């Protein structure tokens, strides 16, 4: 079996652009992947076209060999765009390997260690407690969710006294706990907006008494010693990792005992192959893995196969999609879990290529926050 072509299709999932990639072979078996668009959305297709020169004529089932080849042809370690391209190629190759073997990808990884994959839903705001009850109850009734993620900020964290925000957050979580069923789990994503670590500690203390599922990325990821210090001072599960790129960065974080839960993104770190290395490192440090997944149906499918086969997997982020017409049969939560598809080879999801005939691009950009004094901050 030989690789003959690589095709890209610019699409979207809800209000975000997403690039789909198809790798074709001379035996009629094709594989699919969904790329993470990091910023310059149209930079990925020519980069993938360049990388295809290293793949054409190769056996797609040699996933490890080909991913190593793509990494090793780089003079310097690949950054966000390079790893996004390598990730999507890795995923398309695994899809081909599964289809060629007539097996789900998780069976090629040693088989499933769990029968279904737990998911949580990101609400991404801090709705009024009564509204939070309505939202979570609706998601529970429709999909069986019992785990959710909220924002800890009820207002602009740069406006007003920090201590007021901290108190408001603690009171808010207490009210949410009082209104919602006691078995519901609530995580809080601080979106790396806090610059001073002591403030991250104070916010953690405000929510600690109400038992958060986890406290995600309160500070920036770059300075690992700050994470060691932070974790030593908080009593809630500390999670981070969506902005880290490879096993070496995660090894630094884990060696510093900087997190309880790591959150690598399978479409950012270099694909399923690198994701498994990262997860193995976490397992050796008694840390669990809760993959970052703001992506579409295809990337979700890849995450499900990873989670099915990974012993220290904890929970998968998944928000139901409104617009992703190219996915014929996406995985949908049942009883708060994704069911495996043992009778479906590859990723177990079908792509409607007729829909892909038309580009469905939508522009999206991250808005930089302005502080009251006119300076900028992370959004």
TrEMBL record:
Domain Mandelate racemase/muconate lactonizing enzyme C-terminal as annotated: residue spans: 129-237
Pfam families per the UniProt record, alphabetical: MR_MLE_C, MR_MLE_N
InterPro entries (alphabetical): DgoD-like, Enolase-like_C_sf, Enolase-like_N, Enolase_C-like, Galactarate_dehydratase_3, Mandelate_racemase_C, Mandelate_racemase_N_dom
SMART domains xref list: MR_MLE (SM00922)
CDD domains recorded: MR_like
This protein's record includes keyword Thylakoid: no
SUPFAM superfamilies reported for this sequence: Enolase C-terminal domain-like (SSF51604), Enolase N-terminal domain-like (SSF54826)
GO molecular function, one term: lyase activity
Signal peptide location: none
Transmembrane segments: none
Record's keyword terms, sorted: Lyase
Gene3D superfamilies: Enolase-like C-terminal domain, Enolase-like, N-terminal domain
Protein name in the entry: Galactonate dehydratase
Organism expressing this protein natively: Devosia crocina
């Amino acid at each position: 079996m030989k690789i003959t072509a690589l095709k890209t299709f610019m699409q979207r999932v809800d209000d975000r652009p997403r690039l789909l990639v198809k790798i074709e072979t001379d035996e009629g078996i094709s594989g699919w992947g969904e790329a993470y668009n990091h910023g310059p959305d149209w930079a990925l297709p020519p980069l993938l076209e360049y990388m295809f020169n290293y793949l054409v004529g190769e056996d797609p089932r040699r996933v490890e060999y080909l991913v190593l080849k793509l990494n090793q042809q780089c003079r310097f370690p690949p950054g966000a765009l390079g790893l996004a391209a390598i990730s999507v190629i890795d995923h398309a190759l695994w899809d081909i390997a599964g289809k060629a073997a007539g097996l789900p990808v998780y069976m090629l990884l040693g088989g499933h260690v769990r029968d279904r994959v737990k998911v949580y839903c990101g609400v991404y705001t801090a709705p009024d407690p009564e509204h939070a009850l309505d939202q979570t109850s609706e998601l529970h009734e429709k999909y069986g969710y019992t785990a959710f993620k909220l924002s800890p900020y009820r207002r602009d964290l740069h406006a007003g006294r920090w201590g007021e925000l901290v108190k408001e957050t603690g009171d808010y979580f207490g009210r949410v706990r009082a209104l919602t069923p006691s078995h519901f789990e609530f995580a809080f994503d601080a979106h790396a907006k806090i610059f001073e670590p002591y403030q991250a500690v104070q916010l953690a203390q405000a929510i600690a008494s109400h038992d958060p599922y986890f406290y995600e990325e309160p500070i920036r990821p770059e300075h690992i010693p700050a994470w060691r210090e932070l974790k030593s001072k908080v009593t809630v599960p500390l999670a981070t990792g969506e902005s880290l790129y490879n096993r070496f960065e995660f090894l630094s974080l884990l060696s510093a005992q900087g997190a309880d839960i790591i959150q690598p993104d399978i479409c950012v770190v270099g694909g399923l192959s690198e994701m498994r290395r990262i997860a193995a490192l976490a397992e050796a440090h008694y840390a669990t893995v809760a993959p970052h997944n703001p992506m579409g149906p295809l990337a979700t499918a890849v995450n499900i196969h990873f989670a099915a086969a990974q012993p220290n997997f904890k929970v998968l982020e998944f928000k139901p999609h409104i617009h992703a017409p190219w996915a014929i049969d996406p995985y949908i939560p049942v009883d708060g879990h994704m069911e495996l598809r043992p009778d479906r080879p590859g990723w177990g999801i079908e792509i409607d290529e007729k829909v892909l005939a038309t580009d469905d691009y939508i522009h999206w950009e991250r808005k930089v926050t302005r502080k009251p004094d006119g300076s900028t901050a992370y959004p």
